[in-house]
Amino acid sequence: MTSTAEQVDRLSAWEAREARLHRVLPYVGLAVGALLTTAAPAPLGLPLAPHLLVAAIAACWIAWFVNLHPGWAARRTLMFVYYVGLLVLSAVLVLISPWYGFFSWAGFLHSLLLPGIWRFVGVALSAVLAATAQGGGMPASLSHLLLWCVLVLFNLGAAGAMVWFSSIAERQHANRKRLVDELAETNRRLAETMRENEGLHAQLLTQAREAGVTDERQRMAREIHDTLAQGLTGIITQLEAAGQARDRRTDWQRHVDTAIGLARESLSEARRSVQAVRPEALESARLPDALGELTRRWSAINEVRTEVSITGHAQPLHPEVEVTLLRAAQEALANVARHAAATRVGLTLSYMADVVTLDVRDDGIGFDPDARPAPRQPDGGYGLTAMRQRVTGVGGELTVESEPGGGTAVSASVPALPGGAG
């Protein structure tokens, strides 16, 4: 763009100098013609005195239309009037004296003020005047006519070529100027777009930070619920059971030991959650083994019979998928312990081609999944919400089927993304 602009600037400077020459040269030719006509009158029998008056009129005509009103160059009607007047004055002066042929070249120069084809019409008429002056007047014999025709053709060819190339250069200059203007407009719009993009970028960064804060809050809420809340609930349950078994020292000690173990485990899991580390159960075992250990411990604490089954070919999954399924199992079992009053729980982990499904079923009292959570529930129904957020977060789907008195079935289906620890 810079190179094109420089070319246009240089061309504009050249055209400005050319325009000044076009304004000055007609006066030079007029002065030379008047001086030679006065010093060496042509032997044509025409009066010599009027030529100075006609020359003065021609000078004023050019000055009025060209020098004093340069803006009129864009007004076609005025330029037609000017050019016709210029040709008439040139013809009168050439008829008075052939020496005014020096002035007739002004017709070639100022033909560029005419539009389109009219330029070449002006060149042709000016060529006739120039040939008449160069031949010493109007043809008086056949040989003179032949010479006059040759001069007309020569002037027409030379001046026509000049005007032709000038027209091409003018169009090229107009095209370059248009391109520069378009490039400048494009750059202006690009700068505006960049400023808008900067604003949008800043807005997106702000939204991303806010979304990150929201996501982290949701993650911490889920982790707190899955670790501290569940652990504290289990501890409270065990301590309550210990209080009821004060007279039976063996049962009392077992409940207290279980509560202490839950407290330590919850503290460890809370620390791992803050550090965004995988649950300890998945650090040293595969998902089926971790689910089996979780179910065994849950069954021993809650004294509910459980069955665990694995179908399909067990394979390592993406860490986030395994954490999601483990947390879903923890939440489902915690809900059974708190609300279901079940006597039997079944947990099934099914490996399929593209999907892994975890099903947790109980024979408890059930509930209405469409009903609002009861105010007495410790988590206010957040457990299912957190479970659903986890499952949908990895592209899975959570379904809950239950009815009062008919038990509950929770099913979490997630994509079988490979890459988990074996």
UniProtKB/TrEMBL annotation:
Main location per the UniProt record: cytoplasm
GO MF annotation terms: 4 iron, 4 sulfur cluster binding; metal ion binding; phosphorelay sensor kinase activity; protein dimerization activity
Residues covered by the Histidine kinase domain: 325-418
EC code(s) of this entry: 2.7.13.3
Highest taxon above the source species: Bacteria
Group of enzyme by EC: transferase
Positions of transmembrane segments: 24-42, 48-68, 80-100, 112-133, 145-165
Entry-linked PROSITE patterns: HIS_KIN
Coiled-coil annotated residue ranges, if any: 169-203
Location in the cell: Cytoplasm
Catalytic activity: ATP + protein L-histidine = ADP + protein N-phospho-L-histidine
Alphabetical keyword list: 4Fe-4S, Coiled coil, Cytoplasm, Iron, Iron-sulfur, Kinase, Membrane, Metal-binding, Transferase, Transmembrane, Transmembrane helix, Two-component regulatory system
The UniProt record lists the keyword Signal: no
Annotated region (Disordered), positions in chain: 398-422
Names of required cofactors: [4Fe-4S] cluster
Pfam family, one: HATPase_c
Function (record text): Member of the two-component regulatory system NreB/NreC involved in the control of dissimilatory nitrate/nitrite reduction in response to oxygen. NreB functions as a direct oxygen sensor histidine kinase which is autophosphorylated, in the absence of oxygen, probably at the conserved histidine residue, and transfers its phosphate group probably to a conserved aspartate residue of NreC. NreB/NreC activates the expression of the nitrate (narGHJI) and nitrite (nir) reductase operons, as well as the putative nitrate transporter gene narT.
Protein's UniProt name: Oxygen sensor histidine kinase NreB
Naturally occurring in which organism (per UniProt): Micromonospora avicenniae
